[in-house]
Specification:
Residues 38-65 form a coiled coil. By secondary structure, the protein is α+β, with helices and mostly antiparallel strands. It contains 1 helix and 4 strands, in the order H-E-E-E-E.
Length: 131
Amino acid sequence: MFFIESSLRKWLKYVFVLMILCISILLIFEIYGKYIVINDFQVQQKKYEAQYNQYIKRVNQQREEFKEFFEFLIENDLYLIEFDYSYSGGIKAKVSSFLEPSTKIVSKYEIIEISKLKINDKYYVVLEISQ
């Protein structure tokens, strides 16, 4: 009788060791899976952060473009009639002003004269400005 119990304990010990090995292997796979999930999350966070930084850079660039354009309008006494902006096309606007006949406007923008009306010794001019 003592021999049977001892043999049974031996087999139970082997089954117990085998269960511990299986659980250890499953634990290793679970830890690796969690590592992959966390790593993917960190990569996604870095991607979103890079997109956000590009967005902030683009917004700051647009603000600078608007600032330069409106400073140009103020310096040359031009009044805005119509304004359009697209990121790929840039600024397009129609402006008006009273100008002397000999006045030339020099700028980095492309200026096209749409209409001109003589009023006394000045001209009322409508211009199209594009970048």
